[in-house]
Amino acid sequence: RSILDGTHLVPGGGGAWIELAAAVRDAATTVADRSAVAMEAYADALEDLPRTLVRNSGADPIDVLARLRAAEGAVFDGERNEVRAADEHGPYDLSPVVESSVTAASDVAIQFVRIDETLPAAAEPEPDVDEESLQPDPERDVA
């Protein structure tokens, strides 16, 4: 029904998430402040979905994610445990599903960043100073 309503399909099998992560990483290279670190962390978070998908299928996530990153438009086929180009047999995701997931995750990430900027770090309590420790000790204070 969604397809008939004009909804677009995007590569499934983690393909869309890898493409999004790559776009965020590319954008992070143009940022000169510490926002680039947050963007890299966000890209890593985007790759958690395909990593989990691969792990749940029994394949090696490190190898599969490396192949997904290297091949443009590639998807992970969990039934065959292989990385391949998306074809008429899929796998595909509906674009509104991916968009709503990214929007919800982005909203949560933004809230965390705002909270982190708003709440100051807890000040470390000053250690109690023992008056005796201020006195010279020949055994401790060897010249």
Task: Provide structural commentary.
This protein has 143 residues and is mainly alpha-helical. The chain is built from 5 helices and 4 strands; from the N terminus they run βααααβββα. The chain has helices spanning 15-28, 35-46, 48-57, 61-70, 95-118; strands at 9-11, 74-77, 82-85, 92-94. The strands form 2 sheets. It has a two-stranded antiparallel sheet with strand order 1-4. A two-stranded antiparallel sheet has the order 2-3. A hairpin with a 4-residue loop joins strand 2 (74-77) and strand 3. Helix 1 runs antiparallel to helix 2 (35-46) and helix 3 (48-57) crosses helix 4 (61-70). It is elongated. The protein starts with 8 loop residues before the first strand and ends in a 25-residue tail after the last helix. The mean pLDDT is 79.
List the helices and strands and how they pair.
Elements lengths: L8 E3 L3 H14 L6 H12 L1 H10 L3 H10 L3 E4 L4 E4 L6 E3 H24 L25
Antiparallel strand pairs: 1-4, 2-3
Characterize this entry briefly:
With 143 residues, the chain is mainly alpha-helical.
Number of strands: 4
- One letter per element, helices H and strands E, the order comes to EHHHHEEEH
The SS-based structural class is mainly alpha
Mean pLDDT: 79
Largest sheet composition: 2 strands, antiparallel
Beta fraction of the residues? 5-15%
Q: What is the CA-based Rg, rounded?
A: 25 Å
Distance between the termini: 84 Å
Unreliable spans are none
What quaternary form is this? single chain
Q: Number of DSSP helices?
A: 5
Q: Which percent bin holds the helix content?
A: 40-55%
